[in-house]
Amino acid sequence: MNLEPPAAQSMLRKSNAVGVSAVVWSLLLLLTAATVTSAQLRLGKFTIIACLAIASIKSILVLLYFMHLRHERRLVVKLAVPIALVVLAIFIGLTFTDVIAR
User: Rg (Cα) of the chain, in Å, rounded?
Assistant: First the structure.
C-alpha cells in the first residue's frame, strides 16, 4: 500500500523519467562515438556492418525511450513495425531503380 500523496508520486515518476532519459542520452552519445570510431577503423567489409548495427541500436533506443513506444499497447507496436518495414522497402526499391537507371 502506497501512502505517499499523489503529488509526491508524480514527482517521483518525473525524477525517475529524467534519470532514465539521461542514461539513454549518455548511451546515445557513447554509441555515436563508437560509430565515428568504427568508421575510422579499416575493417573492410565489416565497417558498414558495424556502423549499421550501431545505428540500429541507437534507433531502437530512440524509439523505445524518447518516442515512448515502451509504454504503448502491443497493438500499436505490431502495426508500426510492419508499416515501417514496408516504407523502408519502398525507399530501398526506389533507390535501386534510380541507380539502375543511371
Answer: 20
